[in-house]
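PROTEIN DESIGN WORKSHEET
SECTION A - STRUCTURE
LENGTH: 424
TOKENS:
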């Protein structure tokens, strides 16, 4: 009888222990993990270097071409190669510079700047993805650690049940099937523990990879799970996403890029470019009307954009078509973002309500049922299988409670990533 009461107290301790997560030295901190991932994740480094390379293209796009220098030895007699034998001979130095029509350089710089904006938006969106990946892994580890703790405590309790059943069977007041049923349940818990530990190791390896650590590196224990309040409405979240989500901002950058491309293509098809040249001819013949004076030459060359129906015109048509496609892509992604915000908000409320229901109603009721079964078993009014069933039911409810608590936090993290801004 005393042993059964001790087991009952153990059940109460189990329930109270499963309701609070103890903090151990070296526990993981989600904000520290996020900072480490943002600093060390190699995927982000790829985008950072790509952004730096794209930004370096902006001044290149608007730069003038290098001036051209030419040396002409003109009208040199083949008989003696004497520059002084005829007034037609001379050494000419020519400097030419190509000058785009006004506004073309600025348009090319804008196209390059918009390209950099697209890459920068992709980097910021990837950072949000990394934050979400870290949070998903962290809350998964919390759930698995709590599940392992609860399973191990239930396994210990089942061993006590087995000893009770064996004792009662030995004195003739119990059934062998009670012992066998308890042993099967214990084996089932052992199998579940193997699976939970496997999932824990896999989740830890994935988190280590995100942090750019070795996959097999040891991770500390998870700490206490503090519930995050959720008081934001869907409409305000959707408005925030329009301003903050890098994915949408990147599509807007691509829209502006194609507008700049269209402007540049129109300018190329309607506005000429110029090539200015300056020449200086050095002469050494004195016996001529100008007494051997050197010559100065100036020139301007320009292209005639008369073939509008060919290459340049179709560049304009292409840019306009791609702009319309990008505008449609923005609307498609806006709708998708709004839908996911709505879905994640529904999930958050549902998981929060279910966790509260388990905590305030289902688990207390299961505890009462187990206590009643324990009391009935003491006076042989409840069979052992009923007692065991009540214990397993409470165990499943405790696991479900922690599942909804962590899924609630994971849904918040998904919502945050979808909005594109740290909210919690």
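SECTION B - SEQUENCE
RESIDUE ASSIGNMENT:
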């Amino acid at each position: 009888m005393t042993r059964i009461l001790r087991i009952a107290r153990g059940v109460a301790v189990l329930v109270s222990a499963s309701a609070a997560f103890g903090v151990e030295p070296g526990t993981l901190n989600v904000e520290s993990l996020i900072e480490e991932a943002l600093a060390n994740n190699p995927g982000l480094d790829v985008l950072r270097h790509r952004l730096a390379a794209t930004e370096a293209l902006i001044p290149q796009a608007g730069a003038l071409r290098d001036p051209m220098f030419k040396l002409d030895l003109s009208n040199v007699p083949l008989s003696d190669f004497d520059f002084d034998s005829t007034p037609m001979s001379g050494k000419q130095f020519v400097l030419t510079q190509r000058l785009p029509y006004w506004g073309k350089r600025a348009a090319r710089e804008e196209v390059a700047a918009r390209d950099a904006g697209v890459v920068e938006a992709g980097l910021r969106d990837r950072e949000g993805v990394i934050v979400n990946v870290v949070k998903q892994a962290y809350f998964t580890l919390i759930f698995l650690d709590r599940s392992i703790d609860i399973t191990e405590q239930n396994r210990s309790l089942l061993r006590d049940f087995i000893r009770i059943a064996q004792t009662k069977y030995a004195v003739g007041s119990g059934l062998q099937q009670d012992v066998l049923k308890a042993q099967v349940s214990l084996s089932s818990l052992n199998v579940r523990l193997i699976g939970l530990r496997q999932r824990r190791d896999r989740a830890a390896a994935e988190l280590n990879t995100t942090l750019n650590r070795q996959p097999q590196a040891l991770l500390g224990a998870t700490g206490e799970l503090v519930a995050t309040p959720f008081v934001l409405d869907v409409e305000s979240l959707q408005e925030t996403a329009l301003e903050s989500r890098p994915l949408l901002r990147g599509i807007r950058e691509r829209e502006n890029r194609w507008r700049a491309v269209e402007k540049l293509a129109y300018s190329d098809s309607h506005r000429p470019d110029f090539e200015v040249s300056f020449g200086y001819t050095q002469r050494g013949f004195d016996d001529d009307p100008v007494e051997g004076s050197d010559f100065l030459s100036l020139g301007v060359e320009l292209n005639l954009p008369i073939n509008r129906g060919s290459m340049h015109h179709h560049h304009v048509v292409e840019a306009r078509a791609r702009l319309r496609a990008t505008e449609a892509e923005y609307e498609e992604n806006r709708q998708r973002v709004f839908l996911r915000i709505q879905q994640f908000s529904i999930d958050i409320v549902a998981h929060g309500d279910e966790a509260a229901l388990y905590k305030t109603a289902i688990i207390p009721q299961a505890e009462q049922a187990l206590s009643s079964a324990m009391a009935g078993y003491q006076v042989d009014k409840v069979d052992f299988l009923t007692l065991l069933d009540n214990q397993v039911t409470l165990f499943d409810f405790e696991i479900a409670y922690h599942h909804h608590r962590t899924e609630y936090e994971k849904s918040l993290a998904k919502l945050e990533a979808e909005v594109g801004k740290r909210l919690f």
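SECTION C - NOTES
The chain has a mean pLDDT of 86.
Residues 2-419 form a domain with the Outer membrane efflux proteins (OEP) fold (CATH 1.20.1600.10).
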